[in-house]
Amino acid sequence: MNPEKTEGMVLRVVEFSETSCVVWWFTRDFGRINTLAKGAYRKRNPFEGAIDLLAISRLVFLSKSSEGLDLLTEARLEHSFRAGRRDLHGLLCGYHLVELVTRWFDSHDPHPEFYDSLRDSVRAIDQGGYLPRIVTSMELRLLSSTGYEPAWDRCVDCGATEFAGPRLAFSTLDGGVVCSRCRAGRRQIVSVRREIASYLQRLTRDDREQAADEPMDKVRGVWGEIRGLMGQVLQHRLGGPLKVLPLLTFLARNPNSD
Ligand SMILES: [Zn+2]
């Protein structure tokens, strides 16, 4: 059996025995994997700091051919998630991303581009980046990289691109905006400002989450509307409620109002 090498992010650590634990990873090249880390709780162990929550590490593991656990043989820390120790909001955002990745992806289903964005976002949270934008951008990329990018500028049903009025009707069932004709009789419609829809479309594609100034941040009520919509879209896709999401109300506050 050849050892596999990759980079990964720690999603969860579960005690396995007095000296060993199981580490859940989201890796760049193998997607989600669960590894047994033997001796992780010993005083001198080969994984020091590399298997803490949301740590980004280089790892080497032996893959099991059966359903069993992969065996972690080496883990070297590249970046530790310091926000977890000093900033409750940053920590909650980290937990939210962990829950999304854990529930969204099957094991051994790699998404290297999404992995790279996720790693950059976790670093951005650590560096005190603007949390509403970082989290929303990751949620949008999660949707787009798995084939669920919402239709923001054309009717998801008939393809129409002409819309009347300042607000659009977003269908969470269909995953996109619907025109006034197709809207009739549909359930689970969320009203969204047209400027917000185009902002979310931009946020999916470019690196706005890193930008220092974003005019949309100053528009009253923008984040309340965005967070409400994203919550519905994600929970519909997952078929059930997210646990950390209700704790993220701080993301919905306008930065100028507190
Ligand atoms: Zn239509």
Structure description:
This protein has 258 residues and is of the alpha+beta class. The chain has two domains: 3-83, OB fold (Dihydrolipoamide Acetyltransferase, E2P), CATH 2.40.50; 130-252, de novo design (two linked rop proteins) (Up-down Bundle). The protein has helices at 83-86, 88-104, 112-126, 131-145, 180-183, 194-205, 222-238; strands spanning 3-15, 21-27, 31-37, 56-62, 70-79, 167-171, 176-178, 189-193. The radius of gyration is 20 Å and the shape is elongated. The model has no long low-confidence stretch (mean pLDDT 91). The site of zinc ion has 8 residues, from helix 5. Zinc ion binds at residues 155, 157-158, 160, 178-179, 181-182.
Secondary-structure blueprint:
Elements: E1 3-15, E2 21-27, E3 31-37, E4 56-62, E5 70-79, H1 83-86, H2 88-104, H3 112-126, H4 131-145, E6 167-171, E7 176-178, H5 180-183, E8 189-193, H6 194-205, H7 222-238
Parallel strand pairs: 3-5
Antiparallel strand pairs: 1-2, 1-4, 2-3, 4-5, 6-7, 6-8
The structure holds zinc ion.
Zinc ion binds at residues 155, 157-158, 160, 178-179, 181-182.
